[in-house]
Amino acid sequence: MKRTYFITGFPGFISSKLIQKLLMEDPNAHFELLVYKDQYYKATIEMDKLVKDSRYTIIKGDITLPDLGVDEETKNRLYNKVTHVFHLAAIYDLAVPEDLAYKVNVTGTEHVLQFVRQIYSLERFVYFSTAFVSGDRAGEILETELDCGQSFKNHYEATKYEAELRVQRHISELPTTIIRPGIVMGDSKTGETAKFDGPYFVMRFLDKFARIPIPYIGKGAALINLVPIDFVVNATVFLANDQRASGSVYHLTDPNPLTARKAYRLICETLLGKKPSYTLPTSIVYKTLSVPSFRKWVQVERETLDYFQLKAAYNCDQACEHLRGSGIECPNLADYLQQEVTYYKEHRHEHEKLIQVN
Which residues form the Thioester reductase (TE) domain (predicted)? Predict the structure, then answer.
């Protein structure tokens, strides 16, 4: 049977890379892309770059609306045609307001689940969660764990947790694979990324103080879990086609993460050619970033600091076991950081890649 992939979150960076990989693996596939109306033009341009024929349909829709905001004729066509669903649409901003995060991440996922349950020939539903549904938990976090009474550092984490709870309620009735990535960086070979967020906030911070002695921020004993996008995409496509992955949850995380201090030093050395030389308490940096004028000047979200203090260690044994023999594994940060930094240096002044900090 010819595969038809229904994908939300396009033209986002991960969904774009996912489509590229799926095209390589399955040249005869058709793509049904649910795109928010404001992104329709951009989506059309992006797909014209990826596909030179009519193997895709762009559908104006909205996951926050019942029936995904599509008409009856389109719904019935999709119910009869779609074989695989990849749900990536979400608000990923760590500083997102609660109401917007809930509307998109939770209500939106509920609407996608209602849609998925109506598909006649569903082979796999792949839901993109995040490793950080663990919230403020400490110690080893297993792929089989979710609700452990944790609290959350921000509305992004809280709503992604609520959304995954809803997906897991249907995991016995739908052929579901849940993907929990760590902090996603650019491509390990080219450094390409769409937005300079996450660890790139560290690079933006270091840029501002490049000419003076650079401090460490806090003790940095926590493990920082960075993964390149090509690893995440390659692993996701492989698992989406693996029967063992139906009904399973995977931490697509680094099995050998660096401490935050080592990762910070490595970024500093690669970007500036020098090591940090003294330590500032995290509390001082956090208070400083609480001042809006300073935060806007340095262009760093204060929520980023929370991920340099995590006390969690993400067990990815099941992911490693199911990927064994595929040739897909997470590279060490030291092996690809130069590509990430080079790309950042070449594109750091491009407005569309900068997350605006308020």
Answer: 7-236
Output the six-digit token pair for 162: 């609520």
Q: What CATH number has the domain bearing residue 44?
A: 3.40.50.720
Amino acid at 326: S
pLDDT tens, residue by residue, 196-220: 988 898 999 999 999 999 999 988 8
User: Rounded to whole angstroms, how far apart are CA atoms 248 and 349?
Assistant: 41
Phi then psi for residue 182, to 5 deg, are -80, -150
Q: What is the pLDDT of residues 217-236, one digit of tens each?
A: 988 889 999 999 999 999 99
Look up the domain containing 240 and give its range.
Answer: 4-184+227-252
**Are the CB atoms for 121 and 1 separated by under 8 Å?**
yes
155 and 204 belong to one structural domain? no
* Domain-embedded: residue 134: yes
Cα distances from 278 to residues 210, 217, 287, 325, in angstroms, run: 14, 9, 18, 44
The neighbouring-strand residues paired with 30 are: 4
Query: What are the CA-CA distances from residue 87 to residues 7, 71, 194, 227, 269 (Å)?
Result: 6, 19, 19, 20, 37
Nearest of 291, 286, 293, 298 to residue 355 by alpha carbon: 298
